[in-house]
Amino acid sequence: MTDRFEGRPWRKSAPIETRRLVLRDFTFDDVARTALYAGDPAVARMMAPVPLPFTEAHASAFIGDVLASNALGGGLGLAVARKREPDALIGTVTFAGEGAAVEIGWWFGRAFWGKGFATEAVMALIDVAFQAPHLETIVAGAFADNPASLRVHEKLGFRIIGHSRRTSAARGCAVDHIDMALTRADWQARQSSASEGTSGA
């Protein structure tokens, strides 16, 4: 019998460890922290689908949806925590899609901004995503008034491919959005360059 997850190696990837972080499966013990951090207006306003207020009921539904999507194999959504507190969620990174492209997104609690956690976590998940041989492109983006997120995209090698308008549930209106993409070829070139820099250091 053919495995319906064939070509989607990410389904068995978690937990993923980086230098400072662990990317692990969600549990419903993460509901309170998810509601607290995603429900911060400064965070929610930068994510298209998150309403305000964002309650624990919303957080529970979100976690349930992520777990269901993970089980179906169409993507991967993980809770992010620091290694020293692996049960204490500080953010999340997810990707999902069909065919040769997936869309990746992430958010972190405001207390954890400016520490490089997003770059570290997203880099690890991009590595996992590109383990799928059929995947050629990862698409992403950020609202135009979110320069910190746009800098993370740029650090990771994403390129601007267009501009659009997306509805922000928290703001209740459409907002200018920068559309970005990262190809497998660009990611491999970036990784090769980083490896050569390390070996020559």
From TrEMBL:
Say which domain of life the source belongs to.
Bacteria
Molecular function terms, GO-annotated: acyltransferase activity, transferring groups other than amino-acyl groups
One Pfam family named in its UniProt record:
Acetyltransf_3
Enumerate the spans annotated as N-acetyltransferase domain.
Answer: 21-185
Could you tell me the keywords of this UniProt record? Transferase
- Coiled-coil ranges (or none): none
**Keyword Aminoacyl-tRNA synthetase in annotation:** no
Q: Which InterPro entries would you find in this protein's record? A: Acyl_CoA_acyltransferase (IPR016181), GNAT_dom (IPR000182), N-acetyltransferase (IPR051531)
Q: What is this protein called?
A: GNAT family N-acetyltransferase
